[in-house]
Structures are given as C-alpha cells and as structure tokens.
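Task: fold both queries, return tokens.
Query 1:
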Amino acid sequence: MNKKVKREIKEWAESIIIAFILAMIIRTFVVQAFKIPSGSMRPTFIEGDRILVNKFIYRFKKPERGDIIVFKYPEDMKKDFVKRLIATPEETIEIKDGNVYIDNQLVEDPYVIREIFYYNRGQYGKTARKIAIPPDSYYVLGDNSSSSRDSRYWGFVPKKNLLGKAFFIYWPLNRIKTAK
C-alpha cells in the first residue's frame, strides 16, 4: 500500500472513531431514542412510536406533574418504562371515582386529566386509599388507565431510576410531533 492510501484509511478510521465516541456521549448524557412497545400510553403514544428523550433536563430542574418520563422499571432494572408523572415526593395521592386527587385537591391539569377515567386497581390504587409518596420517589400512571401496569400495581419510581423526559415523537412520519 502506498502512503496516500494508508493516510486516507487512517483519516477515515479516525473520523469513524470520533463519530462513534460523540454518538455514545450524546446517547448517554443528552438525548436517547426509545421505541414504544405497548399501548399503555395511548393515545399519547401508540405501539411502534419512536420517541426522543431528554436525558439531562432533570439535572437542572425537578420533574413536574404531567411530565412524560422514561425510567428503569423498579421491578426489573433491565426494562425501561414510559409513563406520565402524577405525584411528586411527599405528596398524597388518591384515586376516587375515576379522578386523581393530590393532597385532597382534584387534579385539573389538562396534561394529567385528558378525559381519562383512572381505574382503581392494584395495591397502590385502591378506592378511598390515600397513598403518601416517599421522599425522592414519584407516582406514575399510564394514559391508557385500563391497560397500564403502573404505580397503582408496583408502587413508586425512585428518583435514581429516572432516565429523562420524553419530548418528541419522530417516527412514524405521520405522527411527528412534540410529546405532551
């Protein structure tokens, strides 16, 4: 091989290595893509939607009620889940007559309610039971309340499990939009 060919191979290899390292840094700390596997967040997300998740936002601000968060599933840390954040640390939640009450106040936030009837299910979602959210934990629900395994069943999402906030649907093309 002549020197020119060796130099070109070296330049290509360096470019590929740098691109790979930058991609890993961005994926690890900035933005990551996820695929929606189930209908638990319908109609917000449907099966097969691909979303982008902001992985650094919660380093600068606290998660807020209504945020769509991606987190490590507390019962199996190998699985990533996406749900809507409903209650924050040290609040009290109650699901009654299909409505959500936080600290005895009906939640009327349009990003939380969305004409959803929240079913009373599971150990942490029983009728007329007030649930205290522990410090550094969150209570999350799927937008498709009738078919979502969420905090009503398995409890709370520890702060350390948060991966980021879903902010954009990028695929399929006919569903491109911001996530709300």
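Query 1 returned. Query 2:
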Amino acid sequence: MAEGINKILTAAIIRMLRPLVRILLHHKIPYGAFADLAKWVYVDIADREFNVETRKQTISRVSVITGLNRKEVARLQKIASPDDEAVAQEYNRAVRVINGWLSDKRYTQGKGKPKTLPFEGDESFMSLVKNYSGDIPAGAILDELTQVGAVSVDNERNVTLVRHAYIPSAGLEEKMHILGTDVALLLQTINHNIHTESSEPRFQRKVMYDNLPEEALAAFRELSAEQAQSLLEQLNEYLSKQDRDTNPEVTGSGRKRAGLGIYYFEEDVDEENLK
C-alpha cells in the first residue's frame, strides 16, 4: 500500500514541478538555488510542525525527519525566511480598494454595481482609499489601478471602475507574489482533503474535457470569466460584511483567513498529458 502511494505521490510531484521549473529556468534560477530553498523549507516545516508535544524540538530530531545532517540543519536554521511583505502590501491594498468599491453601499448603486466616484469629497475615490487602504495616497492607488486597466478617469477626474478585479499587467513582482500565495493555498486545501478524517472536506472541484476543438475555447473563456467573476463578487459581498477590518463591530472568536480561488486553464493535449 505504502509503495503504491509513494509511486503516485512521486508522479504527482513531477507534474507539479514541471510548470514550476519552467518558471525557475525562465528567470535563471539554477538547480542549486532551488535545492537550497527546498532544504530550508524541509527544516522549517519539520521544526515547526513535526515536533513532539512534550519535548523541545532538537537539531537531531529535525535531522532524522528531513534526512539532512545535523550540521546542515543548524546552518539552515540560522537563515531568515525570504520576505516579500512590501509587494504583498501593495497588492493587497489595491485588492481591498476594489473589493470595497463593489461591496460598500456608499460606493455602489444597488446590486453591487459600482458608482463613478469624484476624486475628492464625500463618498469619493479619496474616501474609498482612506477607508480601505489606510494612509496610502489616493493618487498612488489611482495610478496603479489606471496602469492595470482597472479604472478610467474622465476630464473632470471622475473615476469609474471598469474591471472588477485587480490583475497586475506589467508588475512582475506582484505576479510572482500571486504565484507564491495562490498555489500555496490550493496545495493547503489538497493537503487538508487528503489527510482530513472529518466529514468536512474543503471545496475543491474542476470541470475539464480533453477533446475540444480550438474554436470552442474563445466562447468558453468568455463564459467562464463572466460567471466566475459574478460568483466571486457575490462571495466578496458576504465576506466583506464579516471582516473585522472592514466592519470593526463584528464580534467572534479567533482570526481566520478564508476565501475561494478560481482559475482557468488550457493546454495542448498529447500522449504525455494523458499519462
């Protein structure tokens, strides 16, 4: 049984690594750098999550769990985690502004339809940014949203939301941040569903056919984008009302992050894909 699971897991790892290695090679990240990162994560996870409750975690135990020698474990434990906090904050600020624009009644005109906002004044773009992005200058957020095509600005500086999602267009750093967050969240859900012993697996579904003509895809891309965006906006309306950053009066215990991610995929099919 264990041998069969390991064989399937090995095949799954190869499938996951193929697109990741393409990205790494495209950005000239050599194998040695990737191997060092993998070793660091092995040590970090073993240290944090595979300890014995009644005992203090030791270098020797981490060495046994990871298969790395004690000297290497000690070296890796001294290396700080890479930090992309500045990029994460920039990305999250823009997302919060758009989400607030779609869910806050002050900035919508019924059924989540966003108003066109004057740049300054009451219920303006400036007040929207202040409410959902803290002390960041409204002009900086406007420039970012304009650059990615999320808003348009007329001659009187009225701001209209034309795209109901923040999708970085040229910002490679932000796209790399999304790679790290979205793929990690999907893998966490899969891990939960593999190991959960409860009756509450997390939602994880996809629809896929593998003998489609190329001519069918344009309509499917449009249909899937439209319906997925509609669903995400409905879920955003619900979650924004429960979020204590948006509504400080919300009560309850703990602090959780929750959401739903949707992604589109397409690829050519050959014998390798069918294995």
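Both queries returned. Flag for query 2: The two ends are 21 Å apart (CA to CA).
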